[in-house]
Specification:
By secondary structure, the chain is α/β, with parallel strands linked by helices. It is built from 9 helices and 5 strands; from the N terminus they run H-H-E-H-E-H-E-H-H-H-H-H-E-E. The protein has a 5-stranded mixed sheet with strand order 2-1-3-4-5, sandwiched between helices. Bound molecules: zinc ion.
Length: about 230
Amino acid sequence: MSTAQRVSPQEAWETFIAGNERFITGISEHPNQNVERRSELVNSQSPDVALFGCSDSRLAAEIIFDCGLGDLFIARNMGHVVAESITASMEYAVHYLGSALIVVLAHDSCGAVAAAIEQSNRTPSSVTDSVANTLAPVLPSVQQYWLRERRETPYVDASSVDADAIGRIHLRATVDQLLRSSQTLRDAVDRGDVAVVGCQYSLVEGRAVPYISVGKLEINLAESDSAAA
Ligand SMILES: [Zn+2]
């Protein structure tokens, strides 16, 4: 049995991003982290936001969005690469827990993006099979960036690329792939029950900057260099 969304995507986004603003300015409230909240949640959870982000240790979601227990349903892996378990997790949050917003969280200086760039050069270093397979979906974003202009070689020169711009291409691709992977999510977005926002987090500033949104949501998106790609 599915669960109806409790808030609109708009309300979910505004609550969510207000937490990031508190974190940025150093006035975090650390809500929903006490014994009462823990007890309250023993028998059920109703997170309004589902988050799919990079595993990077600096992206500790409840800290950077200043929220607590029961607030975020989270799935993370290196380089935020869509996989069946990720799609299932987001579907579960939307369909069974009533989440109204999916946030896809990329970040600058991403090690997975850097590794994908490195794997695209003339002499890539050897990585384990599982790392190679996980990075594989990031490689087309590297190529897309590299082939924007006429190049003398198909091999990527890491020193002449903007890794964060490649990260934004991969962010857009991730949002697209997530939605393509799930009829349930597409239907929920179509009905206006759910919106998806892709953000790139700035490590130095602590800010999650939205670059792409899909669904019914009023939001100011940052100018994206990857949009024209
Ligand atoms: Zn990362």
